[in-house]
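TODO from last week: model YigZ family protein.
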Amino acid sequence: MSDRFLIPVDEHQVEEEIQRSRFITTLCHAPDPAAAQAFIARMRGQYEDATHNCWAYLAGPPGSSAFVGMSDDGEPHGTAGRPMLLVLTHSGIGEIAAVVTRYYGGTKLGKGGLVRAYSGGVQAALATLPTKEKITYTALEVVLPYSFVTQFKLLLTRFEGVIDEEHYELDAQYALRIPSPKIADFEQELDSLTNGAALVSKEEP
């Protein structure tokens, strides 16, 4: 599993008309399959009068296949859900769900046309989707002498550390988070910086 990757910031929607059919593509953050299914249910309710509400989701890191789902919702088999999922899988974005809502306009698109319409809708939405980086952190508690505080905070900045709590008693005490891939290097440099005087306890990511 990747420790950092892009995810959607918020719900995002684009719309286009293809041979008189109206296609509305909505993307949403889906950290797990339950969130994806809740989003899909909400879109179905919002567009309950639509001809189809086809969907796909990838509720994990980019390219993963552990938590995926798709549906053609009445369109010919393989013309909607699978092409949509294929686009999501290769987008470089994780934890994402897509619903493409179609209002039929009276002109049949054929299987190839449907594949292009559904995959193209997702591609168009992804092109303008606001994203942010998701980082997996590991929580640490660090206790160290006051003489190292200034250098310690510089070290934290370099390692993208986040301080959640700090207390100053006999020593300086910190509850903090470090990006998981950087933990080993951070601990090594902290030990070197303080000549082994820092006490570190680690929690699971």
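Done. The radius of gyration is 23 Å.
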